[in-house]
Task: structure prediction
Amino acid sequence: MYKQKNFQNILVPILSVFLGLAIGAIIIAAIGADPFEAYQSLLNGALGTPYGIGQTLRAMTPLIFTALGFSVAFKAGFFNIGLPGQALIGWLSSVWTALAFPNLPQFILLPLCIFVGALAGAIWAGIAGILKAYFNSSEVIVTIMLNYVILYVSDFLIRNVLTNPSADKTAKIPDAASLKIPFLTEMTKNSSIHAGIFLALLAAIIIHIMLKRTTMGLELRAVGQNPFAAEYAGMNAKKNIIRSMFISGILAGLAGVMEGLGQFQNIYSQNGISLAIGFTGMAVSLLALNHPLGIILSAFLYGIFEAGSIKMSQATDLPPELVRVITSTIIFFVGANYIIRFVIEKVKFAKKEAQ
Result:
């Protein structure tokens, strides 16, 4: 029974991806383009050149962090919708720190910027955790509201504090605060890949070990499954609620750090649009069924979609937004996985009847 359940857990996301791609192919054909040519150009754009591979790895880096943040909160029984805001405050804090201390040596400035960004994300998520633990507030509503708070606060700070005269983006961070590695950039033909990919992979391994092999992970999962039973067993539910949100915020904050110190090297006004990596990270985690190591593969798939969408659009005249339709369809099937499980059970039952 256990092996069958594990097999289904692996089969559901695979079938979800297949069904999403199939529906995408139908849409592409209905528009009048060749689905095989479209998907081939998508793969060539993402994996066919060193530049494409670099862009794919860069795209998956912040998604791993936000997906891990969502996964930790979800394991503890919470739906953290605040990942975009937590990533944004991590981005803002890391860039602000880099600009405030431009003369510090790299071995001090870079770790300091990363630490400040992670801490800012933890504090911002911790607000929702504390309100949930002590006042039973809805973490969904609180985190959504906090997204908008930091969105407009960051916009104000960028235009009125971090730039002079007022502008919609800051100056570039000093080289000592950058995650860029010249060797990686040259190897991938000037792609925007940076050292953050190694930090993201390390974070996935650490979170997997933490959830599966430590007392802290056991307590977080126990609280997520039944907080009353966890309290009865001697676990402090309030402490674990706050702890899970702090860890989730740290990871989301690091996603923002990857954008600020890695890809963009500054921060710009979001113009009323929150960070897409936060919401996409939720989709990445759901596709991986919230498994930390599965998130790496899921983020890689989304990185392929993002990096290859422009090439697909150029080769077939299809709008790059079509990729979002495909990824949304994949997540629909993941969310409605009971449909896939129902079909699997029906097929198994029909086989038994035939025997």
The chain has 15 helices and no strands.
